[in-house]
Amino acid sequence: MDELERRIRHLIVETLNLEDIAAEDIDPEEALFGEGLCLDSIDALEIGVEIQKTFGIKVDPQDENLADYFASVRELARFITRQKGLQEQAI
Amino acid sequence: MTVDLWHFLRRGDSDRIIAMRDEEVLSAGDICAEASRLSVELANEQGPVFLYCEDTANFLAGFIAALAAGREVRLPGHAAPAYLAEIGAGRELLTDLEGGLGGAGVIAVTQASAADGVARIEMPDAAGRVCFFTSGTTGEPKLCLKTVGQLAAEVEAHLQLWGAPSGKLVSTVSHQHIYGLLFRLLWPLAGGTPLLARRQEIWEQVAHHMADGACLVSSPAHLSRIPDGVAFDPPASRIFSSGGLLSAVAAKDAAAKLGQYPIEVLGSTETGGVAWRTQAETPALWTPLPAVEARLDDSGALEVRSPYTGTDGFLPMGDRASFEEDGRFTLLARLDRVVKIEGKRVSLPRVEEALRDLAGISDAAAIDLPGKSTTLGAVVSLAPEAQEELLRLGAFRYSRELRTALADRLEPMERPRFWRFVTHIPENAQGKRVASQLRTLFAAPARDLPIILRQQVGDAEAVFELELNPDLRWFEGHFPGRPILPGVAQLHIASLLAEASWGSTPTGHEMSRVKFRRVMEPGAQVRLALARKGDERTEFRYLQDDEVVASGSFRTGK
């Protein structure tokens, strides 16, 4: 799990080209949007695209719980692990 | 009838005081004598004469001499050798700089100039040609021609509006540009008011010269940086500002410290003066100068026609404006500062307006940043309470808070992605914001580059005034308890700025003759001078209080 969280943090920093903050500075439980890291909807879009590419998972834009999956690095890690599991079952 | 700029040249007027330089009092006779000497020399040849002087009395002598000799006068904006070469000012440079820059004529008006008796000189003709250099859209210097008659017509408008300057004329701007030439030299000359021959750069000195009531000709570059404790007593007779708009904050600060709101003059080298305002009232409306016709063109942009433009038709200004019924107007965002971000048209002034309206932001500039895709950057200066917030949250989280706060007013693409927090938004010597200068701030991650207070980039030389902000990452752990700027960081900063200036990239780490003489500590203000030796090598020197603290060179490639 820690390794996945580490990869997600790096993915966020690299995708968004964040220059004033290091991956290690993002707390896994810190809110990514609103308070906390204060990312916005464009950031979410870019992170979404990159996550699908990197981890080979599908994100359903219609999913009502989407905002919850993107709440923090930890939630994202859980979401990715779950999606991967589901997709492997499907195969 | 047009005002007679040159009446002081007439016989019988030779004792009139034209200028003061330290303890020296320079009379019309002194100026005349030097002008007459130069004019004889200048009459031997034809073609344009380049004139650059530090001292306004010397400048006046050279100006009259060249015009009287029937030569066109070209006025370089500054005297950096690379720039002078670029505009073709070689042998024909008339100057008061020591050594005359390559052996051309040297001007020196002194109190003793008129000792040999009253000299005679031809009156400059109204058709005399005066050329300024402006930076075109691409940044290369462009010639802009005016006639003596046009300049005189504008001075007449000043006399009509404000009378003669009273007391004496003190200035922080150079006479080499149109605003300085008109306001600091020709207006007092026509009005019979003595002027200070030297430009005053330091506020304490300005205040000292204002002590017996004087008129101040300044610019936003100075008026937005008045130190606490500076006051004019008695108040100035008038204060002028031009060369860029004075921010509301700066106008208020100047009014509080100097006792009155500066009179701002709107215009450009091409248009000459267009309108004036003060910010004593809000909204601060612009009133067209006498004889100026201002109106909106089909696209809603301001255009002007006046005796000062040098053309018969209307000249576009590039700003949108909205007119009141009485002919006064408000300036709106410029039309030419629209950039494409992710395919969407974004107005930079609109972004700046939204930024300035945020709590805690005292001034802001928005700039498009080239890259894989064009992105938007913001350069902002903060009020003190917001600076504490910045320290508490860190630059990144704070910038994201600001970005979120912009969501009310701006669409996603209009919200800046990269942020720089500075004490002052960088401006050039004329108080204008220059896009390339703003972009330099984004040449590297914020904590890699010191604060750039000023910069001047030429073809082969560049000078940066730097403030080593304590949160530069180079100070971390080097050394604990006694941070100093590591040598490798000095090289890195020099190469980043060389790259930002000329697009040259350092190849590997090959360097030579590198000497670190003294340490640089957090908070220090240093000057970095870069000199490009062909495409291959760049020399750097760091100076502190004019003393070299480090120097060397590194290899660069294209």
Summarize the structure.
Chain A has about 90 residues and is mainly alpha-helical.
What does this entry look like structurally?
The complex is a heterodimer of chains A (91) and B (558). Chain A has 91 residues and is mainly α. Chain A has one domain: ACP-like (Non-ribosomal Peptide Synthetase Peptidyl Carrier Protein, Chain A, Orthogonal Bundle), CATH 1.10.1200.10. The two termini of chain A are 23 Å apart. Chain B is built from 14 helices and 29 strands. Among the domains of chain B are: 147 residues, ANL, N-terminal domain (Rossmann fold, 3-Layer(aba) Sandwich); 105 residues, ANL, C-terminal domain (GMP Synthetase, Chain A, domain 3, 2-Layer Sandwich), CATH 3.30.300.30; 116 residues, Thiol Ester Dehydrase, Chain A, CATH 3.10.129.10. In chain B, strand 12 and strand 13 form a beta hairpin. With 558 residues, chain B is α/β, with parallel strands linked by helices. A six-stranded mixed sheet of chain B has the order 8-10-11-12-13-14. The radius of gyration of chain B is 25 Å and the shape is globular. Classes of the chains: A mainly alpha (91), B alpha/beta (558). At the A-B interface, loops of A face helix 12 of B.
What descriptors fit this protein?
heterodimer, A: 91 residues, mainly alpha, Non-ribosomal Peptide Synthetase Peptidyl Carrier Protein, Chain A, 4 helices, globular, B: 558 residues, alpha/beta, Rossmann fold, GMP Synthetase, Chain A, domain 3, Thiol Ester Dehydrase, Chain A, six-stranded mixed β-sheet, 14 helices
